[in-house]
Amino acid sequence: MSDTIGTDTPYTALGFYHKISQLRADTWNALKRDLGKLIHLKDDAQSRNLVKAVDIKLTRLEIIEDYHAFPSKEDFRHLWHLFNRQEYSLLEKVVKRLVRAMISESYRRRQVDLSETDADAEDLETLDALAQLRRGHPTSNSSSQPYFEVLIVDAMSLQEEEVVREAFHNLRRPEDKFVYDVVTVRSFEDALIAILVNPNIQACLIRYEFPYKSKYNLSALRNYLEGISEVELETKSEAERSILLSSMIREIRPEIDQFLVTSGDVEVTASRDIRHFNRIFYRETDYIEQHHTILRAIDNRFRTPFFDALREYSRKPTGVFHAMPISRGKSITRSHWAGQMIDFYGINIFLAETSATSGGLDSLLQPYGPIKKAQEYAARAFGSRQSFFVTNGTSTANKIVVQALVKPRDIVLVDRDCHKSHHYGMVLSGAHVAYLDSYPLNDYSMYGAVPLREIKKTLLEYKRSGQLDKVKMLLLTNCTFDGVVYNVRRVMEECLAIKPDLVFLWDEAWFAFATFNPTYRPRTAMHAARHLRDRYRSEEYAAEYAAWKEEFDQLDPDDDATWLDRPLMPDPETVRVRTYATHSTHKTLTSLRQGSMIHVYDQDYRQKVEAPFHEAYMTHTSTSPNYQILASLDVGRMQAEMEGFELVHSQVEAALSLREQLYTNPLLKKYFEVLKNSDLVPAEFRQSGVETYYDPNAGWNKMEEAWAQDEFVVDPTRITLSIGKTGIDGDAFKNDYLMNQYGIQINKTSRNTVLFMTNIGTTRGAIAYLLDVLIKLAKSFDRRWEESSRPERKIIEHQVKSLTHDLPPLPDFSRFHDAFRPHVEAGTPDGDIRRAYFLSYDEENTEYLRFDNGELQRAMVAGRDVVSASFVIPYPPGFPVLVPGQVISEEILYFLQALDVKEIHGYRPELGLIVFTEEALLATSEGAD
Ligand SMILES: Cc1ncc(COP(=O)(O)O)c(C=O)c1O
């Protein structure tokens, strides 16, 4: 795949850090190719050019490799040595070996000595490459020692570096659980670059005096170093500088285990804020102690308590005298008919199937052992105070949280186009629901997210009507299906200024992976909650708040602008941070289908929520939760803690490559338009002014800027393609073109868009295949046009126009009928959705009205409030256009008529829409059910 950075450009900035791993791989391959050509060239001029190209590539690679353990600095010296002596044949051989060792990852299993270029050494790499290929094969086992790298920050000389590296190498033992190599850097900046570009780094030893500045131009650090004065840093004491570095490493990669090696005296260091260090070593601590401490720390993350217990259980001989004939494969091993299940799945899954909670296994309903531990580890990984596993998807996780926190008649502010589990959760809990409208994206038949102003306005309405004490929760989707992400901190901060104990439920079904990337993480609920909790406890905030309050108190509280036109700050004396997030772990991280988690950061959890949460959990959790799902959640957590940073990073890289091609390829641009930040987020919500993260000259530099500032941003790993210009609607494009012709699966479509989601398993190969398919389709559309007759062209033009211009505007939530509005006299919008829902259970309360024959419209014209008795959910877009108790508006009818989708839940075309009879509404208004 081509790379707009261009592997021949002699730049050293790491501002392209989003593509650094691709750049690294591509540059090594290009170097190998150049050398391959160079050794066969006779022509002097051509040779000179190639030598120059090799020089440039080696220079660039040397910078990148400075932050990696393999190839080592010594290896690089060897490469330069060969280059300077013009031993190009030998250099080509060494580079070939090196590339093979990198691809096969043989350096993770044993030391690769690049000075050996004999056939035996090459054979080893070939064997490793084969072993690597076999990894995808079910019979392979990956039980070898996992490999990682330890970063040492210390201003050492080259010789000292070698000594330290050697010392750690000598400590390796075959019985160690892991094997590691050492990367050394000499400055503060280099340490940060290293942890950004080298995902193998799992532990960091911060040693003695090191300067601040790197010798390289490090534009990639721009965002992370903001607010840090270089001069100030240079004058900081050793301990202070180390502590600052450790907190920055923590912010970027919190999973890294950090150790401080200090020459200062014990008391001074211990009196400082050293919470980010696992342990402090004093100068005299020997390497053996450090070595074992590092291995233990890594093992702490690598452990999978429940998966281990399940594997242990599966090895134990047991007699089964309880339910579940399939456990230990008993009902199928001797079956004459069902043995194919074992053929397909293998025996282990059945050995691990049991209905027993004994034998070292735990009970999800009352965890005390490995499940409890696994959940505690999940809390560590996701930055929550408590985490809970859920084996029936986020659909269930959402209902658990709502039931745990919301009593009948509590008011909940809910994003109207949220997942249907929330609407059903509201019915179950008996909440009074105030729906919030997201901003519409009419051109693409989809919604964005709910503007903060709209949320504040609604809260203010409740405040002014004296109902604020009844408002319990704000429920939003972060990020949306289409990738619109909130500024979670800001939303919580400003809402807490109006209602200091408001509970937040962030549906992060699509956002579990975000925890493992430093740009995404601040926009996750758990990170934002922790940040706000720390902020409100600080003296700086108390001062900031006092100044803000003094100014705020001068303003007119009855003027909406006072509340809506400026940022609000909560009172640190009264504010409570109460935040919940639900993750479909299975959607974005490793987990079997339905594996989900609930994460809690609630200061009042122990006092107020623990007991109801337990009951809610009991209400919705099966007494036979699936152990394989639980084990996969445990492994998924471990994987995310060990390599989440790398996987998410590669995912972002893959998505950015795809986007880059879609932005720039002329043929693709003719039919497909990839929606940019500015297409999905209107200008008023983009404080940074960033329209697109990509610039053909500057690369992807803009993303962090937008993510740091804007009210909404778009997750670039979700790629919405506008396909109106093909004349084919989203549903047909998905089924007839992508799936049937090319076996490409996608999930979401709108009338004129399709959504491609990348994930942590997306490879560069998959991206290349998708691009290839899109190019083939674009060519076929060219052909279709060329070969069409005039009438056929008219049809195509008509289809294109219908998909690009004639789009029905998305309807807002109309209102609940007064019969279902408990606070109608106060004028607040909430509705008793549960009452409406159950009213429809009695047949005589409802009737069907058709809108295709004008029946329903006539009733409306005659002045009747026509009120839906059910949810009506068209797929796509997949959110309820109508909920029970909602008055049907003209806009909604128009939207339903214009929809050309086949699947509308809650609507029977032969009967029409189910609505309440006027008598039922009257009786309800008068208080009868
Ligand atoms: C925003 C949102 N929340 C919750 C869910 C339900 O998640 P699960 O499939 O894990 O039950 C979905 C499913 O697509 C979703 O999009």
Automatic annotation (TrEMBL):
The keyword Oxidoreductase does not apply. The lineage of its organism: Bacteria, Pseudomonadati, Pseudomonadota, Gammaproteobacteria, Oceanospirillales. This is Arginine decarboxylase. PANTHER family: AMINO ACID AMINOTRANSFERASE, BLR3474 PROTEIN. Keywords: Aminotransferase, Transferase. Its cofactor is pyridoxal 5'-phosphate. Residues 304-530, 579-764 form the Orn/Lys/Arg decarboxylases family 1 pyridoxal-P attachment site domain. The keyword Phosphoprotein does not apply. It holds the Pfam family OKR_DC_1. It comes from the Bacteria. GO terms for molecular function: transaminase activity. It comes from Onishia taeanensis. Signal peptide: none annotated.
